[in-house]
Structures are given as C-alpha cells and as structure tokens.
Specification:
alpha/beta; three-stranded antiparallel sheet; 14 helices; 8 strands; 42% helix
C-alpha cells in the first residue's frame, strides 16, 4: 500500500484489483451516493459553477454557446434547489428551451441536455443524488474511477475529481509534501497531443499540482504522442525497452542522451530502463525484476469495496435511480 492517496482513472481495469483490496479507496461506481454539484465552502458558488461548466464544455467538445447556457441553467438550478442534482440541472436546462429562442441558443441548450443525459445514463445513481458523500471526503481517501471504455463522460468525471481534490489541497495549504499521486495508465487517452482542440482537459492543472503535494505518473507506449506541455513538466522520465524506433529520437532528446549513449537506448531489454530525473545530472540505467501481479478481481471483494464507499454517505441518502424528478 502507498503512504499517499492515489487518484486512478483506470481505462484498462489494471488497478481494479488493487482498489478492491485497499480499504482506502473510494469506488466511483454508477450508483454511488455522491453529488458532483454538492460543493463545500472551500470554493465559492460562482467559481464552482464556472469550473463545472468549463470542464463539461472541454470534455464534451462544446464551444462558447454551450458554456453560456451551461452557466445560466446551472445558476438557476442552484437558485431553485439549493443543492441540485445533475438530473435537476438537466430538467432546468430542458425547461429553458423555447421555440422563440434563436437557433443558436436553442441548439446550445439541446446540446447541453443531450450531454447531461449521457452523464445521467452512465451514472444514474450519482446523477439523482442531492446530498451524499461530501467533496471533502475525496481529499481524505484514494479514488478509483473504472472506465469500461474511454469516452467523454469519463474524461469529464476524471478531470472534475482531480480538480476537486486539488482545490481541497489549496484550501488546506498542503505544500511541498507528497500527499497524493495521480495515476494515468495509457496516457495517450488523457494527454494525447490531439486529444482536444484546446488541449487535454486536465492540461491547465498539470503545472499547478506539484506545488500542492500531487505527483503525476503517466504511462504511454508512444512518448511523441503525449502533449508537449506535459513532457516539459515531467520531473522524471523513464524509458523502457522500445518495441520499435518510432520514439527513439524523441526519447533520446528527452533523456538528454549523447550520441554515444543512444546505442544503449536501442539495446534495452525487458527489465531495463533509462531514467532522467532532476536529482541527477546525467541519465542512468536501472534494472528491475519482472513485475508479477494478479489482476483477477474477486466479485465479493469488489462488492464489499462498493459498500465500503457507500457507507461514507449520510444515513438518509439514497442514490437509487428515480423515474420521476423530486419536487
């Protein structure tokens, strides 16, 4: 077990067994009694609305019109419900669609409703919850977000969870001590250079994480495909055996290898890697034994992990998907 909390958006299921057996993990499952809109006083209402709307637009490929209607409808949802659920927000957005509107405004609202419906369909219990597991609990635990397949909804939720944890760290003034680790396996899915028109969703936060105690570990089979801002902010780079020469020249430049050292890069075998870190003036070779890890998930242990997560919600909370909207 790691001494620091982990945040793991897992697109391959590689960490599911670990999350099931580590009692520190919160499992973000479809019916979790957790409301992404139930923010605490570590962030103001206006700033929180702006954060949610910006992440929604970036994750779901939305433009300025989506941001405008998202802001307007979410503000009205808070005014009406105090603490709205995602379903409340979607219904408010539906009610604001008028045949008298301009085509752009009507199209923007329709697009917002469709995006929220996708979120609701994939996380029905979460979307119907108004009061549940607090946002503050996120900062006290490791977080596992399993994705059966990578899509915009998981990009949105993954980014929002990281932002919420970071916001809690800023409020607590957690500085200069490693407290949590963001683990992104298959980094091309989250940080591919062509991931979004305005860059990967989490990109603006990456340079800020280290200051407040969050390290980032990203794996990829294609170093050249990772956004250059992320590569520039990498304190440590580890290059394993290359399966082909696609990344050889970039890896050599990233590691700062001299011409004579490039031969070592091309001759790496299984169990070897070249490391470049800010704590060493020159890159160096490391060897390590093969990793053996049983990734088989015991259904009983997984169900216990879900129940362990749900028990953090207040006793009167329910996340059961509803067929009718509460008043």
């Amino acid at each position: 077990h790691s001494p620091c909390a982990r945040i793991a958006p897992d697109f391959k299921g590689d960490l599911q067994q670990h999350a099931a057996t580590d009692n520190d993990y919160l499992i973000i499952h479809p019916d979790i009694p957790f409301n992404i809109l139930e923010h605490d006083n570590t962030i103001g209402r206006a700033s929180f609305i702006d954060l949610v709307v910006q992440l929604l637009a970036r994750s779901y490929y939305g433009g300025e019109h989506l941001r405008q209607v998202g802001q307007e409808s979410l503000e009205q949802a808070y005014e009406r419900y105090g603490t709205p659920s995602v379903t409340d927000w979607m219904r408010i957005a539906q009610s604001l669609i008028s045949p008298k509107d301009t085509y752009q405004r009507r199209d923007a609202y329709t697009g917002l409703v469709h995006r929220l419906q996708r979120l609701i369909a994939q996380f029905p219990g979460m979307a119907h919850t108004r009061h549940g597991i607090t946002h503050g609990a996120l900062g006290d635990h490791s977080i596992y977000l399993g994705a059966p397949h990578h899509n915009d909804t998981y990009d949105f939720l993954g980014a929002l969870l990281v932002f919420l944890v970071h916001q809690a760290a800023v409020a607590q003034q957690d500085r200069n001590t490693l407290r949590r680790l963001l683990v992104l396996d298959e980094g091309l899915l989250s940080f591919g250079a062509t991931n979004r028109i305005d860059g990967p969703v989490l990109l603006p936060l990456i340079p800020l994480l280290r200051e407040h105690g969050t390290a980032v570990a990203i794996s990829t089979a294609h170093l050249g495909g990772i956004h250059e801002t992320l590569r520039a902010n990498a304190y440590t780079t580890v290059v394993l055996q290359l399966t082909n020469a696609t990344d050889a020249s970039l890896a050599a430049r990233t590691l700062g290898l001299a011409a004579a050292q490039v031969e070592h890069l091309l001759r790496l075998t299984v169990g070897q890697a070249i490391v470049r870190t800010g704590k060493s003036e020159t890159p160096f070779v490391v060897t390590f034994p093969p990793a053996t890890m049983d990734k088989t998930v015991d259904p009983t242990a997984w169900q216990a992990a879900i129940l362990r997560t749900d028990h953090l919600a207040p006793p009167n909370t329910t996340s059961t998907p509803r067929t009718t909207l509460p008043p």
